Amino acid sequence: MFQRKRRAISYWSGIVGGIFMLTFFIIIGRFVFIAQGKEIDGHSLIQLGTRQWTEVKIVDEKRGTIYSSNGSILAEDVPAYTLYAVISPKAAIHVIDKEKTASELAPILKMKESDLLSALNRKAYQVEFGSKGRMLSFATKQKIDSLKLPGINYLTESKRYYPEQSSAAYTIGFTQTNPDNNQQKGVFGVEQSMDRYLTEMDGSVRYYTSSGGVPIPDEKQKINKPVPGDNVYLTLNSSIQTVLDQTMSRVNADYKPNSMIGIVADPKTGKILAMSTYPDFNPNLRDIKQFSNIAIASPYEPGSVMKTFTVASAIDAGVFNGKATYTSGDYRVKGGTIHDWNRAGWGTINFDQAFELSSNVGMSVLTDKYLGPDRLGTYLKKFGFMQKTGIDLPGEQAGIVNWTWPIDKLEASFGQGSAFTAMQIVQASTAIANNGVMMRPYVVDKVVNPENGKTVLANHPVVSGHPVSASAAEQTRALMRQVITNKNVVNGVGATGTAFDLPGYDVIGKTGTAQIAMNGQYLVGKNNYVYSFLGMAPQNNPRVIVYVAIKQPHLKPTDLGSEPVVDIARPVMTSSLQYLQVDKKVVQGSGQKAAPSVKLGDYAGQPLDQTARSLQSFGLNPIALGDSPTVSRQFPYPGEELEVGSKVILYSGGAVKMPNIQGWSLADAMKLANITDLKLNTQGYGFVDQQKPSPGSQLKSGDTLTIDMKPSLQMNIQTSENKGNNTGVSGVSPQQ
């Protein structure tokens, strides 16, 4: 019996042992197979392990910065914060009082308290708060930090910021965040056209961690170095741009026009020095409603400024006789009758007078009987009106040329019937200013690598045509000068542009009053026009072009139409000429001549007192700022030539007190604001009459300098004894 039992036990033990050994060899075999093949079910074990134990940290890099020509930041990346709350009780620090947290965060994030509380009550380790909790500014972060709420933390990233708010917004443009890679992409303006240069490449750090997520010591890290975006420098001058923005803002408040365009350009190079349009928008808020830059993308009938190019064409063709006469008032042609803005006309006048009085009939007769409509069309093409200018901004549109009927061709001679963009007008005007050489407009000056300072891309002036001869351009400028100065063209009636004159600068120009077509008919009423001015200065060698167009302003009962245009064009022209250091003519006897000039040296590191006295001995007016003994910065810069009597700002650092600037020009106030990093706010035009801060006040970087300007004859001049000394340097008395 025991024998049988032992045999049975041995039998089953053998079976169990065999099964065990078979299982062991199967498992061992599987291990060997996996070890040799390094994959299971088609999945690579090496890749699975690498993903499981590898951590990747993204190194955020900055998008390129956009600068003005004089170094002001127009667009930059700044730190931004995404708010999150740790709500798990397992965390060492977590939200304790959810109701209180929701209540105190709601007004800061501008969210409903119930929405915040709903997020805080989720079953999660931590939660975020949607779009209202993302891209928070540092100021908002400080407000939240002051609440000292437990469990509240931030993820740091960057966002695009535009320090000048709505200034030149349609030129600079804005970005949007790409959700796929969290990078910003330019979608408008320079941000779009230069996106390939501005875009950064984020870096990364890869390393292995233990099962607890702790980095393994001495483990080699794989680093992809981040590459910052290139910096873009524009041709825009922030000082001139500021004046253009502020004057347009005041006109917008006073006249509430449908739209406005303002452009300032350098006729020698084609550089756009300032450009604004209304309605505007703030790229920080993305409150844009008009998704095109109307200065380059919205053709309109420009009106009488086009007479400039009609007359220049006739002069160049050799058919213009300014003393030849015609009968003004109306002119019948096939297809209709052309009228002067003064329906009664001025009787029989000559073509010089026609230009000064802005006679539609005069331009029509000149085109129909002398130049010829087809030849006018040829000249308009030479002036670039039949195609885009090629400016380096996205979205530009070409003009719309209506050349079907004979009357259409004649109407083009005085700016009706065909539509062109403001930028086309500015480009064409460079040929008048630049002795027949037309320059292509551009806004991007250069692109610079921020790491090594090397120039990646440099734009240079490009000649876009030679529509007329130098002599034709010169003769046209002489007629444009008469538009500004002739106060008695015929029978006591003055030229149309006398309100735009700036004594001492030989401003030239042409006014425009264009009808607005709607539903096949022209609107009526003095509020239904596009009022404009195309100006240049000085006459013999224009350094600046200013073009302003205002559509449908709400005029006062006593206004004639040019008033809102004057309110922009005059201060912008004045500030531009002063900032560019254009010599102002001084009256001596019966003639005028330019004031003598002095070339500035480099005064950095020089004793402040000695430098101030040396400048005064050359006839300049030194303004010393700061209480340190040596000059650290100066404005204007070394090498610039100033006329005698001009102010030179010498900055030494330390405590800076506000000087008395009553009687200063806008350009001098700009110098002060530039070197002391003040934000300039101007009202009126002419010379400084009132200022804030008051003389002697302590200045800090970022303060606002507000000046009220008036023409010199209206100023309430006070002496330096009444308002303090300008220089702060013993023995140096500035000229007021």
From TrEMBL:
Database matches in InterPro entries: Beta-lactam/transpept, Beta-lactam/transpept-like, PASTA_dom, PBP_dimer, PBP_dimer_sf, PCN-bd_Tpept
UniProt-listed Pfam families: PASTA, PBP_dimer, Transpeptidase
For the keyword Membrane, the answer is yes
What subcellular compartments does it reside in?
Membrane
PROSITE patterns found in the cross-reference section: PASTA
Which GO-annotated molecular functions does the record name?
Answer: penicillin binding
Question: Which keywords does the record carry?
Answer: Membrane, Transmembrane, Transmembrane helix
Identify the stretch(es) annotated as Disordered.
711-736
Query: What's any one GO cellular component for it?
Result: plasma membrane
Q: In this protein, which residues make up the domain named PASTA? A: 594-653, 654-711
Q: What is its main location?
A: membrane
Family indicated by similarity: Belongs to the transpeptidase family.
Name of the featured protein: Penicillin-binding protein
